[in-house]
Amino acid sequence: MNKLKSTKTKLGNEIELLGEKNSKSLVIGVFHGDEPQGKFLINEYLKTHSNTNLLFIPCLNPDGLELGRRTNSNGVDLNRNFPTKNWELTEKNEFFGGEKAASEIETKFLIDIINEYKPSLILTLHAPFKVVNYDGPAKEISEKISKIINYPVEASIGYPTPGSFGTYVGIERQIPTITLELDETCPVESLLKPVYKIFDIL
């Protein structure tokens, strides 16, 4: 798996884009530092699989992962920092969307990748809600994922998410975008088989 692009975070950690230049689907792990499952699942998959259709960012928020918290090292929730029509300046809590939209290194890196590689489908790995949430024209693929992992399909996560990645790419740019909310109560190893099957249909 080739390293196509990388950047360094505020704390000096590396964010990597792995794959082939002509890969069509993008898989992203660890938007939130307290949701580490995605990095483990992606890295395990890459040890034994070579899927040339997929681009991977195993860990978008290595600073948050290192610090054991949802936000990045600036205290920004990356999933509220995208330049959407509904982005707003919010109070400084764990959902803080930054002082301005796209203010963060991690957000800019991901926007650059979307613009350069133009993925036709995006899957982000989150926790803990056990749902297949989607934005944009992704209902059909979400239903296929639902059958594999046995989680319900939800068009809404149930609360407002101004500046979210799903709104930015799924709704406003009409790229099919799936937010797979994984079960955090089970051993992450038990998710390997269904997640591998999901990667293989993207």
User: C-alpha Rg, in Å?
Assistant: 15 Å
Which percent range describes the beta-strand content? 15-25%
The strand order across the widest sheet is: 4-3-5-8-6-7
What is the count of helical runs? Answer: 6
Find the CATH superfamily. Answer: Zn peptidases
Helix percentage: 25-40%
Low-confidence stretches at least 5 residues in length (pLDDT < 50)?
none
User: At CATH's second level, what is the architecture?
Assistant: 3-Layer(aba) Sandwich
The count of β-strands is: 8
Shape: globular
Give the helix/strand class.
Answer: alpha/beta
Search tags:
alpha/beta; six-stranded mixed β-sheet; Aminopeptidase; 202 residues; globular; two-stranded antiparallel sheet
Explain what you see.
This protein is α/β, with parallel strands linked by helices and 202 residues long. It has one domain: Zn peptidases (Aminopeptidase). The protein contains six helices and eight strands, in the order βββαβααββαβαβα. The strands form two sheets. It has a six-stranded mixed β-sheet. α4 (139-149) runs antiparallel to α6. The chain is globular. The mean pLDDT is 96.
How would you summarize this macromolecular structure in one to three sentences?
By secondary structure, this protein is an alpha/beta fold.
Q: Helix and strand layout, with pairings?
A:
Layout: E1 2-8, E2 14-19, E3 25-29, H1 37-48, E4 54-57, H2 62-67, H3 105-117, E5 121-126, E6 131-135, H4 139-149, E7 153-154, H5 165-171, E8 177-181, H6 192-201
Parallel strand pairs: 3-4, 3-5, 5-8, 6-7
Antiparallel strand pairs: 1-2, 6-8
